[in-house]
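pasting for the record
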Amino acid sequence: MISTLAKYEKTIMELPKISIITPSLNQGLFIEETIQSVLSQDYPNLEYLIVDGGSTDDTMQIVSKYNAHLFWISEKDNGQAAAINKGLRLVDGDIVTFLNSDDLYQPGTLMAVGEFFASHAEANWLTGLCINIDQSGNEIRQCIRLYKNFWLRWNNHSILQVLNYISQPSTFWKRSAMNKVGYLNEQLHYTMDYDYWLRLGQHYPLHVLDRNLAKFRIHSNSKSGATTYRQFDEELQVVEQYYTGLPIFLHRIHRAITIKIYQQELK
């Protein structure tokens, strides 16, 4: 009869290696909470790499406290997408993702993701639900969260061409899928994730975990907090790169509606 310990060890061996990249630049205010949200997962097959762009605040002093549990690089780079790509080329996990230096994982996220991939060999990428939080960690923009979750449950690539219902911090993909699709587009500043979802979706169906996997932080210094409308403009450029006709027309309509929603949320 197989002992409980033997069953546990077998389960651990079957879990895929997850590699997480955190790009960072002068995020000393938030990065320790981000690091702790990763390391507190206690996932047994984890590789964690922080790619810093040469921070001049206390970011690296904070990161150095965790030398025994993660790897890091600190040097000037060409922006967020370039930093993520640098990390993706260095890690070797079966499952890869990036978590920005102000975002957080929910407890149990990595185990849920690892177990899903271990039991669904056909899955090449996976996403889940996400909560929006402010600088202090309070939940905000609940209407936007509910709106995205509504479309996420439909989970259709044609809909994805019209609106980005996928939350980046809650999304993971296989290295083998990355080998086919390639790396992030380093020319994009706000929507490199949306561009990547469209490319992944052209080859593989998206799988969804119906649970909150992450918290996405919005604050005055974040891209999503300070440059929301530029993000919408870049999303349209991305769609125009891959599609013509109806998707672009519908995307333009949705863009106008979404701006109105954000304006209401920000009042």
